[in-house]
Amino acid sequence: MKLALFPLSAHLLPGGVMPLRIFEPRYQRMIAEAGDAGFGLCMWDARQGDELRNMYPIATRVRIIDFDRLPDGLLGITVQGVERLRIQHLWQEPDGLRVGEVEPLPLWQCGRLPRDQRNLAQALREVFSDYPEYAALYREPDWDDACWVAQRWIEVLPIPPEQKQWLMACEDYNPALNLLSNLLVASH
């Protein structure tokens, strides 16, 4: 599948919601052409010197769920993560828009959060409480779903992007839950 790519300094996973400000002409074109396929949201790789290839290989296909003209006149959109992707090939179009041939990765299977890891959901609730503008993006948080909780934590946890990429590339959410449990125990 061919998708336009939007590099950021943040990760978004399936089910995640993120507002974006669009101002560059190449990204305005990307939004205009997104249609049902959406576009790929990927993370900058600051270690990579090649400007064309300075993106990590695991991305997320997103769809636009809302848009508005912002007070400063820019286009504001809200996107939601649909599926994880692996960028296979990458090129740049004449206007600077990066496009990639991408391979969808299987969705993580949903499952109830194990009893001994429910503290992860409670800690995430505290993050939502501390950041109401972030919490407002999620009308119906699924605190009992291990996959949903793990994905939101991967998005917000201040860990190196290489570690987030490793977690995103895993076949399921269990490595993320194990890491989160260890981090939570270490912080208390």
From TrEMBL:
It holds the Pfam family LON_substr_bdg. The keyword Hydrolase applies. The lineage of its organism: Bacteria, Pseudomonadati, Pseudomonadota, Gammaproteobacteria, Aeromonadales. Residues 1-188 form the Lon N-terminal domain. One of its GO terms (molecular function) is peptidase activity. The keyword Membrane does not apply. PROSITE patterns: LON_N (PS51787). Keywords: Hydrolase, Protease. This is ATP-dependent protease La. GO terms for biological process: proteolysis. It comes from Aeromonas molluscorum 848.
